[in-house]
UniProtKB/TrEMBL annotation:
Reactions accelerated catalytically: uridine(54) in tRNA + (6R)-5,10-methylene-5,6,7,8-tetrahydrofolate + NADH + H(+) = 5-methyluridine(54) in tRNA + (6S)-5,6,7,8-tetrahydrofolate + NAD(+); uridine(54) in tRNA + (6R)-5,10-methylene-5,6,7,8-tetrahydrofolate + NADPH + H(+) = 5-methyluridine(54) in tRNA + (6S)-5,6,7,8-tetrahydrofolate + NADP(+)
Annotated GO CC locations: cytosol
Name the record gives this protein: Methylenetetrahydrofolate--tRNA-(uracil-5-)-methyltransferase TrmFO
Task performed by this protein: Catalyzes the folate-dependent formation of 5-methyl-uridine at position 54 (M-5-U54) in all tRNAs.
Chain's gene name: trmFO
UniProt-listed InterPro entries: FAD/NAD-bd_sf (IPR036188), MnmG-rel (IPR002218), MnmG-rel_CS (IPR020595), MnmG_N (IPR040131), TrmFO (IPR004417)
Family under the similarity heading: Belongs to the MnmG family. TrmFO subfamily.
Length: 480
């Protein structure tokens, strides 16, 4: 379908499938760019196992948008960037805030009602309550698919066939991810097993954390005692990925199981004491191109977050570990985006289809809205036959987009690795050219002060770069 706009140019209608966090934001941005949009939401005609209402942008679980501290926290920074871009999700969250300390938490019903009302009232938006139960019709030439982690099976199946991937819905095997600069390098050392160089490594690609027998025994005890999360009833039918048993399940099968699995101490020599063979070794592997994040190899776990942090900090070298993401297992639907999507979130195999939200491999309400916002801007630019450069990688939006479309490393030493969804965190940002070393009064920064100052400098750089990007876009639009 095409519609005539004010300038008498012919524009196509953009179809957004899924009225969740990402789809609602995408529709809002498209409509505000002056392009007609049809938002297709299947609820209440068909619902998911987690949604409870027919409101747009329903929050399926927590009512928190996490930290609102733009200076010190990456998700707070993302809030700030989204507000500068007239985000409907942020506007509705701010208007429905409930007290939650430094976090932005919302009255969930008020929030969803505000999003629904704004979309319904917009003259450029048409809302249709229907399931898109297969690939969108061929004459929909500009489509944003934002159907989320619980995409209906018929659509998920069609996308899976089109993408050529084996699976689209499965349990994420999420291993915890650690900030590299929080690892104690007086204990850990770099070495690949048997110094194997492999196709993409240099023989010293892994960080190794050694354990004595006593440390190993205490670690296994803590794993077995730690509090675990339960599967939800509807999760029980989804299979595990091969070879991704939680570590606590492995430990429960025998005290030596981990030592013969992810913690095997073979092919590695501790350079600090080559004569003493560690009883077990935990390995960490680089997780992003920047080398700022490392995942703990084979450590997927269903331990509750509090217990998990305590247990993982028992690992020598990780006593002060800061986690970019904790481990977990839950059902999810997402694309192998770095392989399948182009830098503007279009499916390479069929560029009329653009993806947004959790399906692309971001994780979280705010991140999903952020990628929805970008997908909306990109789709509107296509409809107006104009172009838009993505936000710089130094911004939270650019860093998230980079993780989805380019920041993942496909192979390292031991072979291919699967792409996993991720929350926004400072490890996704390019390092500072010159990290701060001194306080404003000229005295040296020490210990944690350095980390805090670094985060603040990354945030300040991001906000200045997003402002410049917005100003450049306005200049280009005014010149056109
Ligand atoms: C059980 C669960 C709990 C979660 N808890 C949290 C949490 O506490 N905090 C957090 O930050 N993140 C959480 N997440 C992760 C994630 O951030 C949210 O799921 C978020 O809502 C994702 O946004 P989205 O827009 O991509 O998908 P959604 O918000 O799920 O929106 C997708 C929409 O598409 C619709 N849809 C699906 N298929 C079709 C179709 N074929 N045709 C038309 N419409 C369709 C759905 O009805 C839904 O409205 C959770 C995820 C799950 C699965």
């Amino acid at each position: 379908m095409t519609v005539q706009n004010n300038n008498d140019t012919i524009q196509e209608t953009i179809h957004v499938i899924g009225g969740g966090l990402a789809g609602s934001e995408a529709a809002w941005q498209i409509a505000n760019a002056g392009v007609h949009v049809v938002l297709h939401e299947m609820r209440p005609v068909r619902t998911t196992d987690a949604h409870r209402t027919d409101s747009l942008a329903e929050l399926v679980c927590s009512n928190s948008f996490r930290s609102d501290d733009a200076a010190n926290n990456a998700v707070g920074l993302l809030h700030a960037e989204l507000r500068r871009l007239n985000s409907l999700i942020m506007r509705s969250a701010d208007a429905n805030q409930v007290p939650a300390g430094g976090a932005l938490a919302v009255d969930r019903d008020g929030f969803s009602a505000a999003v629904s009302a704004a979309l319904a009232a917009h003259p450029k938006i048409e809302i249709q309550r229907e399931e898109i139960a297969g690939l969108p019709p061929a004459d929909w030439q500009n489509v944003v698919i934002a159907t989320g982690p619980l995409t209906s099976p018929a659509l998920a199946d069609a996308i899976r066939q089109l993408s050529g991937e084996d699976a689209l819905a499965f349990f994420d095997a999420i291993a915890p991810i650690v900030h590299r600069d929080s690892i104690n390098m007086d204990v850990a050392w770099f070495q690949s097993r048997y110094d194997k160089v492999g196709p993409g490594g240099n023989g010293a690609d892994y960080l190794n954390c050694p354990m004595t027998r006593e440390q190993y025994e205490a670690f296994v005890d803590a794993l077995l005692a730690g509090e675990k999360t339960d599967f939800k009833e509807w999760e029980t039918n989804t299979p595990y990925f091969d070879g991704c048993l939680p570590i606590e399940v492995m430990a429960s099968r025998g005290r030596e199981t981990l030592r013969h699995g992810p913690m095997k101490p073979v092919g590695l020599t501790n350079p600090r004491d080559p004569t003493v063979k560690p009883y077990a070794i935990v390995q960490l592997r680089q997780d992003n191109k920047l080398g700022t994040l490392y995942n703990i190899v084979g450590f997927q776990t269903k331990l509750k977050y509090g217990a998990q942090t305590d247990v993982l900090r028992m690992i020598p070298g990780l006593e002060k570990a800061e986690f970019a993401r904790l481990g977990g297992l839950h059902r999810n639907t997402f694309l192998n985006s770095p392989k399948l999507l182009d830098p503007q979130l279009r499916l390479k195999a069929q560029p009329r289809l653009r993806f947004a939200g959790q399906m692309t491999g971001c994780e979280g309400y705010v991140e999903s809205a952020g990628i929805g916002l970008l997908a909306g801007l990109f789709a509107a630019a296509d409809a107006k036959q104009s172009s838009i450069t993505p936000p710089p990688p130094t911004t939270a939006l650019g860093a998230l987009l980079g993780h989805i479309t380019g920041g993942h490393i496909e192979t390292i030493d031991a072979g291919p690795r699967s792409f996993q969804p991720m929350n926004i965190n400072f490890g996704l940002f390019p390092p500072l050219a010159s990290p701060p070393t001194k306080k404003p009064d000229g005295s040296r920064l020490r210990g944690n002060e350095k980390t805090v100052a670094k985060k603040q400098a990354i945030s300040a750089r991001a906000l200045s770069d997003i402002d410049r990007w917005i100003a450049d876009r306005l200049r280009t639009a005014n010149a056109a």
